[in-house]
């Protein structure tokens, strides 16, 4: 697969932060060797975070993010600063650009404290070193560069590469629960909600992870599953299904064969399966009229029977036997105040990187708001969650303890 086709969620996110006119945009352009960001002597030229997906050697596929100045002023300036700080929630590496002749200002120190609090791998980059008579020795996490002359750029790229290795999760989707040469059957419905001519991202990534584990993937629609089972010489090591056909697939898969869903695997891959499993049961206790936030990590054209805005709210009402107030969120923004909600039901987050998912999960945890995802709550409402968690007995034990 071309690196240019690498999904955004699988790219290293690198953010450039700093005050106005310290050379963030110039430095980003110098690092990439391209004119990606507009450069000007006018204060506040960058008014919104600018994202660019590309390949950056020696790192590979990345998303570079240029942010507004942290010292922007006025009503709009405050909004820009807030946007810039929000970018911290999704970057794997933070580049704090400081003017070498001025050093760290109080504004820089505030952001550095945020970076440290969020435990983001970072580099403190002193730009415009060409204007200094003799730059001081760099300390840990520091580097002196010049976007104008190119001094220090090679070392900066190497530093970013080493930081990127520490900032990205090494979790597997399914490759750590299946052995080489074993078979996993993936059940993929092809209906009006399926994208034309391709599989959705979680299905693609699961197939790739199985291949990297030297296992075999058999992909089948739910209607043909039973026939395929009859043609296999021995039962598969695992069946993974789309959540919307879980009940039908469960009826066709013997109890002796492990069964789970793409959503459950991705909750584990993104690091919050335990919370999602515990959060799904909260729907049993929510009072009528409680607020539920339905959150998606991307925006897309909605079908008339969209899973997040139509099907799931209907299924939740039918399951609980009472009505709730549903709010809907799609895209990159996530509310800071979650107190009004009794439950958050998130999509599989396949388009969000690990850092952004971690941020959303921590926001919910800090405000004591349960968070689950689409597939996990579907499995719970169908009475199949424990079966789908059979691969992960430690989570089942926690569920039993909470019950």
Can you tell me the CATH class of the domain at 3-167?
Alpha Beta
Low-confidence stretches: none
- How many strands appear in the DSSP assignment? 14
Trace the largest sheet across and list its strands: 2-3-1-4-5-6
- Count of DSSP H/I helices: 14
The rough form would be described as globular
In this structure, how is the largest beta sheet organized?
A: 6 strands, mixed
What is the first-to-last residue Cα distance? 45 Å
Radius of gyration: 24 Å
CATH level-4 homologous superfamily of the domain at 3-167: P-loop containing nucleotide triphosphate hydrolases
Percentage of residues in strands: 15-25%
CATH topology of the domain at 3-167: Rossmann fold
Helix/sheet category: alpha/beta
Could you describe the 3D structure shown?
The structure is a single chain. This protein is α/β, with parallel strands linked by helices and 403 residues long. Among the domains are: 3-167, Rossmann fold (3-Layer(aba) Sandwich); 183-264, Rossmann fold (3-Layer(aba) Sandwich). The chain has helices at residues 24-32, 74-87, 106-117, 153-167, 201-212, 225-231, 246-252, 262-269, 273-280, 307-320, 354-366, 374-381, 385-388, 393-402, and strands at residues 12-18, 50-56, 60-66, 93-99, 122-127, 142-144, 183-187, 216-220, 238-241, 259-261, 291-296, 325-330, 343-346, 371-373. A 6-stranded mixed beta sheet has the order 2-3-1-4-5-6, sandwiched between helices. Strands 8-7-9-10 form a 4-stranded parallel beta sheet, sandwiched between helices. A 4-stranded parallel beta sheet has the order 12-11-13-14. Helix 7 (246-252) links the parallel strand 9 and strand 10. It is globular. The chain starts with 11 loop residues before the first strand and ends with a helix. The model has no long low-confidence stretch (mean pLDDT 87).
């Amino acid at each position: 697969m071309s690196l240019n086709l690498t999904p955004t969620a699988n790219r290293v996110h690198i953010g450039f932060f700093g005050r106005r006119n310290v050379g963030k945009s110039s430095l980003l352009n110098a690092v990439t060797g391209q004119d990606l960001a507009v450069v000007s002597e006018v204060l506040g030229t960058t008014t919104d975070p600018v994202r660019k997906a590309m390949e950056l050697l020696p790192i590979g596929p990345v998303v570079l993010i240029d942010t507004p100045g942290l010292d922007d002023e006025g009503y709009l300036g405050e909004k820009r600063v807030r946007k810039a700080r929000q970018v911290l929630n999704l970057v794997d590496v933070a580049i704090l650009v400081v003017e070498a002749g001025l050093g760290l200002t109080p504004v820089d120190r505030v952001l550095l404290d945020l970076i440290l609090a969020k435990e983001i791998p970072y580099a403190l980059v002193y730009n415009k070193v060409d204007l200094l008579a003799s730059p001081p020795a760099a300390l840990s996490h520091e580097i002196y560069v010049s976007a104008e002359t190119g001094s220090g750029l090679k070392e900066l790229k190497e530093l970013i590469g080493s930081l990127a290795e520490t900032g990205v999760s090494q979790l597997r989707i399914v490759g750590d629960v299946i052995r080489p040469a074993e078979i996993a059957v993936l059940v993929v419905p092809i209906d009006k909600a399926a994208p034309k001519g391709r599989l959705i991202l979680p299905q693609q990534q699961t197939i790739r992870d199985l291949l990297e584990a030297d296992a075999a993937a058999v992909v089948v629609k739910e209607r043909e599953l039973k026939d395929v089972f009859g043609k296999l010489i021995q039962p598969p090591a695992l069946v993974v299904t789309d959540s919307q056909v879980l009940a039908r697939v469960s009826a066709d898969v013997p109890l002796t064969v492990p069964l789970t869903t793409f959503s459950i695997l991705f909750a584990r891959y993104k690091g919050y399966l335990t919370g999602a499993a515990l959060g799904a049961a909260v729907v049993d206790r929510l009072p009528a009229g409680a607020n539920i936030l339905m959150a998606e990590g991307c925006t897309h054209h909605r079908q008339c029977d969209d899973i997040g805005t139509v099907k799931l709210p209907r299924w939740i009402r039918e399951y609980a036997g009472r009505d709730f107030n549903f709010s809907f969120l799609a895209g990159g923004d996530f509310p800071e105040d979650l107190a009004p909600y009794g439950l958050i039901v998130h999509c599989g987050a396949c388009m969000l990187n690990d850092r952004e998912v971690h941020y959303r999960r921590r926001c919910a945890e800090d405000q004591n708001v349960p968070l689950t995802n689409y597939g996990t709550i579907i499995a719970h409402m169908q009475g199949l969650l424990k079966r789908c968690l059979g691969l992960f007995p430690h989570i089942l034990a926690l569920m039993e303890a909470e019950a």
